[in-house]
Amino acid sequence: MVTHSMENILNMQYYAVTNHDEAPHSPPRKRRCLNKEQDPMSHRIIEKRRRDRMNNCLADLSRLIPAEYLKKGRGRVEKTEIIEMAIRHMKYLQGSRQDTKPPAAAAVHHPEDSVDSVSHSPSGSPAAEHYRLGFQECLSETMHFLVEVEGFFARDSLCVQLISHLQQHCEKILATSWFSSLFFINS
To answer: What are the start and end residues of every segment in region (Disordered) (predicted)?
Structure first.
């Protein structure tokens, strides 16, 4: 009897070492169970790293979204809202690239660029550049008010039409001889 059970034990060890498909017993399953015991931990680590990476990317994305798209006073912004705002802004950028707007249009959505857009004023005079800078600052503040206080989105038709109208008005004022003569007299 001892020999028979010893033979079974040796057979089981033999099957565990050789091809798993040939084994009629469960040692290969035990071996797989050991892997499953290790897998949940490595799977958890992999999933945690993936979630951390996703959260870091969302945090970076939320910092890149212009303030016009964020509604203040709401507290924490949901992850899906961050993605939606990023998509909305990317569509706006694609739309503004297709439109042939003057470079000053970018200053409304990117206040840090407003100085660059001013320095390329057609008249070239410092007074015109200062006027354009003040006008762009006013446009930015108007957009800020509409988005933050009134609850509009920057891409709402009212905001787009108002900003477009005011930018065209600014260009018209800067192009008139009245404006340039006014500042040359005072300079």
So the answer is: 20-41, 96-126
Domain residue ranges in the chain: 40-97, 126-184
Give pLDDT tens digits along the chain (187 positions).
555 555 555 555 544 444 444 445 545 554 445 555 567 788 889 999 999 999 898 888 888 877 766 666 666 778 888 888 888 888 888 887 776 444 444 444 443 333 333 334 444 567 777 777 778 888 888 887 887 778 888 888 888 888 888 888 888 888 876 665 555 544 4
Long-range contacts of the stretch 107-110 (C-beta < 8 A, 24+): 107/136, 107/139, 107/140, 108/136, 108/139, 108/140, 108/143, 108/163, 108/167, 109/66, 109/68, 109/143, 109/154, 110/66
